[in-house]
Amino acid sequence: MEKIDAVITWVDGDDPRHKAKRQAFTSPEMVAEEHVASPTRFSSLGEIFYCVASINRFAPWINKIYIVTDEQNPSLEPFLEENFPEGYIPIEIIDHKTIFRGYEEHLPTFNSISIESMTWRIPGLSDRFIEFNDDFILTAPVTPEDFFTNEGVVCYATKECYLLTAFTRWFKRRKDGSQEVSFKGTMLNAAAQAGNKRYYLKIDHTPRGLLRTLYEEYFTTNPEALLRNISHRFRHAAQYNPQELQYIILYKQGLCDLRPVKGNLLYLKPKKGLEYIEKKLAKFSQSTTARFGCFNSLDMACEEGRNKAVAWIKERISLRD
């Protein structure tokens, strides 16, 4: 079987060294922007442990797990040795300097979009790889066929009208005429980058099967597109989602199999209220089809809600207390 690697982008924003580095490039206005430089974008409550554990539990066929980070190391080995005493998937820490080699002038970066535009440059990365955010987990056994077809990829998304969404977003512009940085906005930008303003693929917070060679071929042919996406240290409204770009290119070639997000994803929004969290966890427990989970910005939840969410995750992945 062709090897498939996993890539996880991770940062511990509470690390004093990283925090000082970040603050040297921010202003109060940027920090006030939730989708740009708000502390929640860099918070870490141990989600990386659950992400890696879920891959070991439900996708043991993964060849290697690469963790992309900025002069940090989550030190996962003791945790994995305790929970997977019979062995676990090899892990390699990849520093930003490695994937930004030749582009060091754009470091340090605190921009997930920029980083995800460069993960394909990990030395030794398999052609087929699955990309995770550190707050993603697997919630049930998965197979390679859940992410890849014979020649292409699986994309959990819906096909949406580009012009209608762009028109709606136009009315949400700020008083100064600027546009907020948003997940949907980066998808529209990617569709435009791919030369496609009829539709876009509305992806969600699921792990994403990707082809390294497609990125390599596209960015080698379009180096200005890569530079434009990595030149921002923090998220910017002009950036495009690189995964969306890949999916649209492949979809136009008939190599992207669209599958529904509904029924496949357990998504916890970044909300504080305990009642919301309890209701969502109860609903999650009733799901018999979902294989993916995203516990977004757990740091924003109340302490009791956060504890209940973590307890649910540990039970789902069968982790020791």
Overview of the structural elements:
With 321 residues, the protein is α/β, with parallel strands linked by helices. Helix 8 packs across helix 11 (242-252), helix 9 packs across helix 10 and helix 12 (274-286) packs parallel to helix 13. The chain has a single domain (4-317), classed as Spore Coat Polysaccharide Biosynthesis Protein SpsA, Chain A, CATH 3.90.550. The chain is built from 13 helices and 11 strands. The chain has a 5-stranded mixed β-sheet with strand order 3-2-1-4-8, sandwiched between helices. A 3-stranded mixed β-sheet has the order 5-11-10. The radius of gyration is 19 Å and the shape is globular. Helix 4 (77-83) links the parallel strand 2 and strand 3 (91-95).
Radius of gyration: 19 Å
Strand content: 15-25%
Structural class: alpha/beta
Strand order, largest beta sheet = 3-2-1-4-8
Task: Using the coordinates shown, work out and report the CATH topology.
Answer: Spore Coat Polysaccharide Biosynthesis Protein SpsA, Chain A
| Main beta-sheet annotation | 5 strands, mixed
Helix content range of the residues, please? 25-40%
What's the overall average pLDDT, rounded?
Answer: 92
Number of domains: 1
CATH architecture: Alpha-Beta Complex
Uncertain runs: 34-43
How many angstroms does the end-to-end distance come to?
35 Å
List the total number of helices: 13
Q: Overall 3D geometry?
A: globular
